Amino acid sequence: MPGADKETDLTERIEAFLADLKRGGSGTGPLRGSGEMARETTYLLRRITAQTRWSSAGDLMEIIRNEGRRMTAAQPSETTVGNMVRRVLKIIREEYARSRGSSEETEQQESLHKLLTSGGLSEENFRQHFAPLKANVIEAINELLTELEGTTDNIAMQALEHIHSNEVIMTVGRSRTVEAFLKDAARKRKFHVIVAECAPFCQGHEMATGLSKAGIETTVIADAAIFAVMSRVNKVIIGTQTVLANGGLRAVNGTHTVALAAKHHSTPLIVCAPMFKLSPQFPNEEDTFHMFVSPHEVLPFTEGEILSEVNVHCPVFDYVPPELITLFISNIGGNAPSYIYRLMSELYHPEDHKL
Amino acid sequence: MSSRGGKQKKGNVASEQEEEEQPLQAVLVADSFNRRFFPISKDQPRALLPLGNVAMIDYTLEFLTSTGVQETFVFCCWMSNKIKDHLLKSKWCRPTSPNVVHIITSDLYRSLGDVLRDVDAKTLVRNDFILVYGDVVSNIDVSQALQEHRHRRKVDKNISVMTMVFKESSPGHKSRCEEDDVIVAMDSKSKRVLHYQKTQGLKKLQFPMNIFQHGSDEFEVRHDLLDCHISICSPQVAELFTDNFDYQTRNDFVRGILVNEEILGNQIHLYVTQDGYGARVSNLQMYDSVSSDMVRRWVYPVTPEANFTDQRGQGCTHSRHNVYRGAGVSLGHGSQMEENVLIGRDTSIGANCHISNSVIGNNCTIGDNVVLDRGYIWNNVDISSNVEIHQSVVCDGAVVKEAVRLNKQCVLAYNVEIGPNLSLPEGTVVSMHHPEEEEEDDDDEFLSDDQEVGHSKDKTRQKAFNPAEVGPEGKGYIWKPSVDDTEDEELAQCLWGLVLNPDPESDSESEASEESQDRSRSVSPEIDDVNAFQLEVLGTLQRGLEENIVCDNLVLEINSLKYAYNITLKEVMQILTRVVLEYPFQLQGTQLTTLQYTGLLLPLLKKWSPVFKNYIKRAQDHLDCLSAVEELFLEQDTHQTAMVKVLMKMYQLEILEEAAILKWFSTGTTTDRSRQLRKNKGLQKFIQWLEEAEDESSEEGE
Question: Which residue range or ranges hold the W2 domain (chain B) (predicted)?
Answer without folding.
Answer: 523-700
